[in-house]
Amino acid sequence: MVNYGGDEVSALVIDIGASSVRAGYAGDDCPKAIIPTSYGYHPAPPDADVTMSDGAENIDAVNKSKFANIYIGQSGPSIWREGMEVGNPMVEGLIQDFNPIKPLIDHALEKTMRVNSSEHPILVTEPTWNTPANRERMAEIMFEEFNVPAFYIANTGVLNAFAAGKGSALVIDVGQSMASVTPVVDGFVLRKGLSYSPLPKLIHAHARHILISPTPHRRGIELLPHQLIANKTLVDAGAPPKFTIRQDRIAGTTESWRNWAETREIDEWVQSVAGVLDQGWNDAVAAQRTARQYEFPTGYNNYFGLERFQVGEQFFTHSPQLVASNPNLPKTIPQLITEALRACDPELRQVLMGNVVLTGGGTLFSGFADRLTAELTRSFPHTKIHAPGNPVERRYGGWLGGSILASLGTFHQLWISKEEWQEHGKPIVGQRCK
Amino acid sequence: MKGYIDILAPSAPETSSVSQRGEKEGERAFQSSRQNERRSPQPLIIRYSTLSGHHHPHHPAFVPTMSSGVGVNDQCLTAFQDLKLKKKFKYIIFNLNKDLTEIVVEKTSDNQSYDDFLGDLPETECRWVIYDFEFEKEGGGKRNKIIFLSWSPDDAKIKQKMVFASSRDALKRSLTGVAVEIQGTDFSEVAYESVLDKANRGH
């Protein structure tokens, strides 16, 4: 509980990632609202009157310039709507488009949690590579548009290290779009050791390639989402699918929605089927592992053996063919770690490798922690990896750390109050939230 | 250099002596990496992935960050001085008070047995320890070093781990003269041999 203005009110914690916006009460052990960061929208036609259609959020005048309607949450992009585009404000872990941020946070706080933001201090998280301009903009949105009484922005690397009980740690965070390695030393981010890359995007692209390309044993797979399928018939594994497309929807389906929907199909396949071998790539071992059956929305189903491990291998090694054809591949996890450690002196490296913290939904990838342990113990025999078994702790480690911190009565010294904001303006953010 | 010092000053307004101490700690922690930089003909440049264009020259090399704001009870410093100067104790165990507002002394002891001391570490709760560690320096006779141990077992509750980790700096800053810092999450990391190893490695 935060003692604010004499009353005990609970602070709120908001953690915005590429896949979801997490919001909840400080002190809780999981976020109350977890909503997709991707949103559906109908672009505003130039100089046309705005009409509200079913399921659309209220949007303020600022956003009317861009969106005629915006659709957020569980009935957001996943509901097919004619001509609906899908957007996502995040690029490489940072908010690039602030237009949808207010509607997204509104949805989480007012629609889902039913709280009035003007009554609660709000702690927001940020990745280490966030820009000063971005965090100041966030503060501005919080104070000016959400009218919060107090605000703080906290680094996810440090929050994750602290949540693991560590002042010093090497935080490996794999999200939906970015993988990062952050050395945290005595509660400080060692900035020159930060390394990050859009590796998860490569994993995704690789999975897409594997699925849509025909192999000698099967045809290329159509990634049609269920929203575009009228009906399907049960078929044998590997048999051509029998389904009817909703022709009525094809013309009204936008490319951005189709892309978003296909991405979801690939992610689902990756999460249910893909894995990584724990001791490095080995054809024989991969072939011996049980093949897993997976059914797509078209009804097409098959067993996936070797190829499901090829996907996960991309986290750790790039094949020579891939390297030859793509000079700018995102760095693998071992490359990111090597780069981070290069900025640290040898004694510090020992400390960090003894305190590796895994966080982010991407690290829940099947076999990831085991493989990482195998890779790291080769160079650092004393490697110790802290990987919370509780998926909530792993997925939402940053949120959880913020939740605990903001719930402490003693934390009040760090909040930027509305009065301070009004008096000092943007510079106070950089001074207070170091 | 200057950049480091500026940002190392504690975020809360405090006395200048504290910020000087912070500065020294920062220098110690990052000395060797800076030496490396000096030695190499070119400064060490972290190259970000070519796919990501976010390199921010305005950011300082590292940034101090949030702490819990928990205070340190005066008795902590008194007990520490008694251990350091008067050799009254072998070790001190610190804990947080019930309200999680202040760091307090939980136990002081002059028991010389390291095994008995390990028995005082709870298996599923966090603590801090100051230990007056005596050892034979390889080829250099008897030495004493003050060890600062942050005990945060994996099985402790996440809330406790978080509060302890974010309060540690406040305690450490008020205790000057610590020679070795250890972060312990299981008993193997605080076994006599591993502590001895760390103590021996220092100057």
TrEMBL record, chain A:
The protein's name in its UniProt record: Uncharacterized protein
InterPro entries, alphabetized: Actin, Actin/actin-like_CS, ATPase_NBD
One matching Pfam family: Actin
Family membership noted in the UniProt record: Belongs to the actin family.
Automatic annotation (TrEMBL), chain B:
Keyword Transcription (UniProt): no
Coarse class of the protein's main subcellular location: nucleus
Keyword terms: Actin-binding
SUPFAM superfamilies associated with the record: Actin depolymerizing proteins (SSF55753)
Region spans: Disordered: 1-42
Domain ADF-H: 67-200
InterPro entries from the UniProt entry: ADF-H (IPR002108), ADF-H/Gelsolin-like_dom_sf (IPR029006), ADF/Cofilin (IPR017904)
Chain ranges passing through the membrane: none
Superkingdom of the source species: Eukaryota
GO cellular component, one term: nuclear matrix
One GO process term, biological-process aspect: actin filament depolymerization
Subcellular location: Nucleus matrix
Pfam families registered for this protein in UniProt: Cofilin_ADF
GO MF term set: actin binding
Protein family: Belongs to the actin-binding proteins ADF family.
Protein name: Cofilin
